[in-house]
Amino acid sequence: MSKQALHIVKIGGNIIDAPEALASFLANFASIKGPKLLVHGGGKIATSMAAELGIQSQMIDGRRVTDADSLRIVTMVYAGWINKSIVASLQAQQCNAIGLAGPDGGFVVAKKRNPVPMDYGFVGDIEKVNAQDLAGLITAGFSPVFAPITADSTGQLLNTNADTMAQALAIGLSDYFDVTLTYCFEKQGVLMDPNDDNSVISQINQANFAQLKADGIVSAGMIPKLENALKAIAQGVQIVRLCHADFVSQPDKGTLIQA
Ligand SMILES: Nc1ncnc2c1ncn2[C@@H]1O[C@H](COP(=O)(O)OP(=O)(O)O)[C@@H](O)[C@H]1O
Ligand SMILES: CC(=O)N[C@@H](CCC(=O)OP(=O)(O)O)C(=O)O
């Protein structure tokens, strides 16, 4: 029997940092019919806030090396300012958004990343999603808005990559819904030439991803994003797509991920 459709959308830092682009994205998100869930990043704002406070940010393979000071900043920025700004905007557009981070409701439990071979500090890898309770919240009519902050089983807060958070929530919720996962960012999709918006690669699977990586066509934050997208499609998510934030509700745009 087919399940109810659920749209899970991830929105990244470049859009969140651009007020007009964010407003237009949120209007489109609010107009999606039926159950929906938003995961947001905000890495760019966290980096500039840290710089204002005299703290340098270091990224390795798309992950922020998170010391105690950085953890305080990312928690305030992601689970505070960004999350509440988005929720308030969605509520003003009759979307019944509820702001959450991993520790709320025990929805996402993580584990501090092993410090060997590389110590990322307070960075969490997701261990468990409490999908049953979260599905209940969604079925009750709420649209969860997740900040990429988690905690471990001892209560230690951790910083988690937002693309990974979206992937784990999508896989967990696939037991209860037919999930479409859309990664929205500021490009038209995965591009053959990152400077040419007309060069969208229409489909990506494990085999051509390996080739695109080897050829240096995908780089930086795009590599973990595609790894997350490929994991989602391999583990029960029905549709996975990467597209420009303006096209969140246009299923024919962007790059489709294939198993
Ligand atoms: N082939 C590619 N096509 C599109 N973007 C690419 C490609 N290779 C690298 N990128 C970079 O990946 C970025 C998206 O990853 P990331 O910065 O982690 O996004 P976000 O913070 O929006 O999740 C793009 O802004 C772009 O600079
Ligand atoms: C561990 C880790 O790297 N966490 C990310 C969380 C934010 C994020 O993923 O934001 P974008 O989607 O805007 O890149 C970070 O602090 O940058």
TrEMBL record:
EC number: 2.7.2.8
Catalytic activity: N-acetyl-L-glutamate + ATP = N-acetyl-L-glutamyl 5-phosphate + ADP
Transmembrane segment boundaries: none
Enzyme class: transferase
UniProt-listed InterPro entries: AceGlu_kinase-like_sf (IPR036393), AcgluKinase_fam (IPR004662), ArgB (IPR037528), Asp/Glu/Uridylate_kinase (IPR001048)
Gene Ontology MF: a single term: acetylglutamate kinase activity
Top-level taxon in the UniProt lineage: Bacteria
Annotated pathway: Amino-acid biosynthesis; L-arginine biosynthesis; N(2)-acetyl-L-ornithine from L-glutamate: step 2/4
Record's signal peptide: none
Compartments where located: Cytoplasm
Annotated residues for binding of substrate: G42, G43, R64, N159
Swiss-Prot/TrEMBL keywords: Amino-acid biosynthesis, Arginine biosynthesis, ATP-binding, Cytoplasm, Kinase, Nucleotide-binding, Transferase
Domain Aspartate/glutamate/uridylate kinase: 8-240
UniProt cross-references to Pfam families, sorted A to Z: AA_kinase (PF00696)
Annotated CDD domains: AAK_NAGK-like (cd04238)
Annotated site residues (Transition state stabilizer) in this chain: K10, K225
SUPFAM superfamilies with a match to the protein in the record: Carbamate kinase-like (SSF53633)
NCBIfam families: argB
Family label: Belongs to the acetylglutamate kinase family. ArgB subfamily.
Role, per record: Catalyzes the ATP-dependent phosphorylation of N-acetyl-L-glutamate.
Descriptive protein name: Acetylglutamate kinase
Phylogenetic lineage: Bacteria, Pseudomonadati, Bacteroidota, Cytophagia, Cytophagales
Gene: argB
